[in-house]
Amino acid sequence: MSRYIEGVQDDLVNFFRYIHSDNGGAWNRNEIISCKPNEINRTQLKQIILEERQKAEVDYWLIFFSGHGWADKNMETYLEVCPREKGDCDISLTELFQAIGRSRLLLITDACRAVPLMENGGRIPSYKYFSVADSEETDYRKACRKAYNEKIGLLPSNTIFKGYSCAFGETSSDSGIYGGEYIHAIVETAKKYIALEKAKKVGVERTPVLAYPLIHSVAKQIVVAKSHGTQNPVYTGPKTWQPPFCVIP
Asked: β-pairing, 125-128 with 60-67?
């Protein structure tokens, strides 16, 4: 029996607030495509991506998924974008990457990767890079976005970075209070690092851009400790190139 996951809404709100903040990359509201929980299927999701690409090729995608997922015995991960009874609900990461094309991509998922099929539900909000600014611009926000864009611009095209909330064969836990443990740890860790950088005294060198792998590594320790080793987040991507996640110019 399918059901809507309450924690998904918390994840969406918390993640949106973070990336919309100056230090989270200063993403503008008109750059955000939020797919409502359980209201689109696999085909519709691919159509949304296609329509964005037809407007102009997207330089960078940041896709965040919170909900149910599963994996097959070939270690392919699937995201369930709508209830199973609606049909056409599962999209594999291979298919998702093919839909996006040769753009840079950071994929963050808070979903199970266990081989047995999990319950269905979920949502993929996607975040599109390089768009016109909105009325929220300030000099500091512009500086944050400039630093963020410059770091993205250094990444090779067609590079995929992936942050999973658990390892292959594992399940992901939800706090029941603030959403998924992984995405909560990611956002809270990022906020702490930003605060530490801002608190540095004048004359002390500041790190203007913090990469996602750093935030993931700290968040992973938190999740592993809370789950007593049953949930082990995984990051994959080229070591030479790392996508930005915090900017403190």
From this structure: antiparallel
Assessment of whether the complete model's pTM goes beyond 0.70: yes
Q: For residue 32, what are its two tokens?
A: 């955000």
Contact 235, 216 (CB under 8 A): yes
Domain that holds residue 46: 6-247
Helices (H) then strands (E): counts for the chain: 6, 12
The pLDDT score that the predictor gives to residue 88 is 82
The region, left, alpha or beta by phi > 0 then psi within -120 to 50, assigned to residue 235 is beta
List C-alpha distances in Å: 43 to 47, 49, 128, 137, 177.
Answer: 6, 10, 19, 35, 32
> How many other C-beta atoms are found inside a 10 Å radius of the C-beta of residue 149?
17
**pLDDT 10s digits, 135-169:** 467 899 999 999 999 999 999 988 999 999 999 99
Q: Does any domain span residue 58?
A: yes
Would you say residue 200 lies in a domain? yes
* Residue 42 near residue 96 (C-beta atoms within 8 A): no
Q: Which of 171, 118, 148, 139 is nearest to 244 (CA)?
A: 148
Report the number of distinct structural domains present in the chain.
Answer: 1
Is residue 162 in some structural domain? yes
* Residue 104: CATH number of its domain: 3.40.50
Q: Sheet holding 77-80: strands in order across?
A: 69-71, 77-80, 90-92
Q: Count the neighbouring beta carbons within 10 Å of the beta carbon of residue 117.
A: 15
Q: Is residue 1 part of a domain?
A: no
